[in-house]
């Protein structure tokens, strides 16, 4: 099934290693039918060297469409092979990671965000990936790294990659990366967000698609970003830590569908069936803990949430099924919370993107050197 059969990627959940695994994506899909879901980043080498074990890394339930596979790497041959091996799994788009600052990734030669310094290689990589798949390809990057943080340098990167490869969609994590040894978590907090670079890209590359990412925490902000022209909005941490209030409103508030009549009790009943089938199939450890992990955000900011999570932690030491963990602990959560329908609650500042549009850098002009 091609991307045109799905709702447009107006809202997506970011790729997050160890977070957006099959379990989280299963939960996410129970709550939103329309959000685009990204896999965790998978290194091309992991795919290439695990050919006997591909399902473990690449298989997912059919209900997870639309779903994008993110791959990382710096070896053209492996990227080609990895894409070939992933193709039968039917992902709806292949995304290439040019934004990860982790020393485990960026420190190993040119991989992750360091690739932004080598747009020629990124263009080659995107050609190789596109040649081995029949679905669209995209790049996820930052707005720069270290001292390479001018708007013009970002544009040079976008210009070279888009003019020398079939890439038409870029996801812009709107802060630069610092490769001076700060942790990946600090790299998602310390460098300031510059949404004005994102909006300037929309102005300067009108033929390309851009998704904005970084620091967006509510559905009101998602809609505010779109109102100012964003083609798509990607949320990471907020969609993970508060799936009910974020994903629960995507279908109605972003896509205009009727508000879904679901409750968290119903979501848990369905997720429990999935979770216990995983535990039965793959064994108790570490799977029962992994299956429970995405649920821990379901009662974000609700009364007794902290106590409930503490009880779950204790229950994980004894219980052998998700059903028994939920039976033993859900008494902590009031029925009025468990049975509450989704409601649209206004939240978040919505003038951030208007301000960003008043700060646009001067328009990009391709230098003669680039044109040659
Ligand atoms: C735990 C975690 C793991 C992440 N792993 C990846 C990854 O595998 N690939 C990637 O491109 N970005 C990764 N990111 C970055 C997110 O995709 C996103 O760009 C970043 O969190 C900013 O968006 P947010 O402010 O909405 O969270 C990760 C972020 C987190 C919190």
UniProtKB/TrEMBL annotation:
Origin: domain of life: Eukaryota
Enzyme class: oxidoreductase
Annotated FMN binding sites: 15-17, 70, 140, 173, 213-215, 236-237
CDD domains: DUS_like_FMN
Tagged with keyword tRNA processing: yes
Role played: Catalyzes the synthesis of dihydrouridine, a modified base found in the D-loop of most tRNAs.
Stored NCBIfam families: PRK11815.1
Gene that encodes the chain: LOC101247957
Keyword Oxidoreductase: yes
Active site location: 100
Family statement drawn from the similarity comment of this UniProt entry: Belongs to the dus family.
One Gene Ontology molecular-function label: tRNA binding
Protein name as catalogued: tRNA-dihydrouridine synthase
Cofactor dependence: FMN
SUPFAM superfamilies hit by this protein: FMN-linked oxidoreductases
Annotated ranges, domain DUS-like FMN-binding: 13-314
EC numbers: 1.3.1.-
Keywords: Flavoprotein, FMN, NADP, Nucleotide-binding, Oxidoreductase, RNA-binding, tRNA processing, tRNA-binding
